[in-house]
Amino acid sequence: MTMKKQTAGAVTVAAAMVCVAASAGWRLGLIETWIAIVLNVVAFPFFLVALGLWWNAAEKEEGDTPFIGY
Amino acid sequence: MIEYLIFAVFVGLLLHGIHRKAIARIQGRPGPPIWQEILHVLKFSFKETWIPATASQTLFVAVVIIAIGVWSTALFVLLTGGSLLLLFAVYMLHKIVEHGLGLSSGSPYGKFGAIRSVMSAASEIPLFATIAAIYLITGSLMISDIQAWQAAHGPLLFTALPAAIALYIVVLAKMHYSPFAVIESKEIVSGNVTEHFGVWRAGLEAAFGLKTFVLLYAFIVLFLGPMPLLLAAVAMVLLLLSLSFICALSPMLSPFDTVTIQIGTAGLIVVYVLLMGVIV
After folding, report:
1. Residue B43: is it exposed, middle or buried by C-beta count within 10 angstroms (0-12/13-18/19+)?
2. A39: which residues sit within 8 A by CB, 6+ positions away?
């Protein structure tokens, strides 16, 4: 199983956008509180993990996170 | 809203750092700087990340995401003044995280941690009794109503001291280096989190930071009532320091002693709730 750096980057950006959009929408009164909470609760864990995987993935060689096992 | 989550993660990790520092100073050691746990998360997130060949790959990764999601939900339930039952239903979901962490890796140390997590389910029993006591006194399980009740009648800490002590033991059981922290004791390496390293551990530490913030803040909200943010922060640190003293001065209990004490506490608080139910 491999996770390419660009995939992790795409998940990070998408999750961050959901979190920011939900928070901004809630501040501006465009979306209900519970919807903003659900969106943040779902997207925030993916943001944190994908961010770590993104800056962890190798720049050189195949650019994969090495899920090599032992 | 995302700012609340990020704030709570950082403050939670800072509280972990204060906890470690306080324990070290009480034990006559210099200890790490209080921002050490924040650095730990950054360090882990730069470490090589992989999944053991013996692991259930999906569960191994999913449990980290679930851990962050569970405590994010708990934070929002608390901040929005939602139901106490919902808050502690989320707390119960943390058990799934503890089991999942240990069982997903395939490591014997992880499995020992997961089994001990089942045994330490006894620590949740005082929680139910606490909820019952709060309901009997305030007539509501909504956190916003409980705060309103305290604004009118004074802190529940004085009205329902046994319930506060029971919740205090529950919070203590979930602290790092707690005498009840048998699932991560050193004779089983790091217990249920032994095989989660790199980004996975960074995610878990962030989730545990959120957990500490939520549990300490929940205690303040439920037993001291509404207060300004700065005062709440001071109260949280004082509460944490009291827990640090216990952790620094108490050895890690054996699993059966842990269960005995927690069941004993639950028994006492159940008697208290029954008496209160009869009297009230």
Report:
1. middle
2. A18, A19, A21, A22
Q: Would you list which residues of chain B are within 8 Å, Cβ to Cβ, of chain A?
A: 1-3, 5, 44-53, 55, 57, 61, 64-69, 72-73, 76, 80, 198-200, 202-203, 206
Neighbours of B128 (CB within 10 A): 17
Q: Which pLDDT tens digit goes with each residue over B11-48? A: 999 999 999 999 999 999 998 899 988 998 888 888 87
Q: Which residue of A has its CA nearest to B1?
A: A23
pLDDT band at residue B76 using 50, 70 and 90 as cut-offs: very high
| SS3 per residue for B97-125 | HHHHHHHHCCCHHHHHHHHHHHHHHHHHH
Q: Do the beta carbons of residue B204 and residue B67 sit within 8 Å?
A: yes
What is the domain extent for residue B109? 2-279
Question: In chain A, whose CA is at the least distance from the CA of B71?
Answer: A41
CA–CA dist A40, A23 (Å, integer): 8
Its ipTM equals 0.84
Tokens, residue A27: 């501040």
pTM: 0.89
Write down the residue that tokens 């395939």 correspond to: B106
B6's CB contacts (< 8 A; 6+ apart) are none
Between chains, do B65 and A49 touch, taking CB under 8 Å as contact?
yes
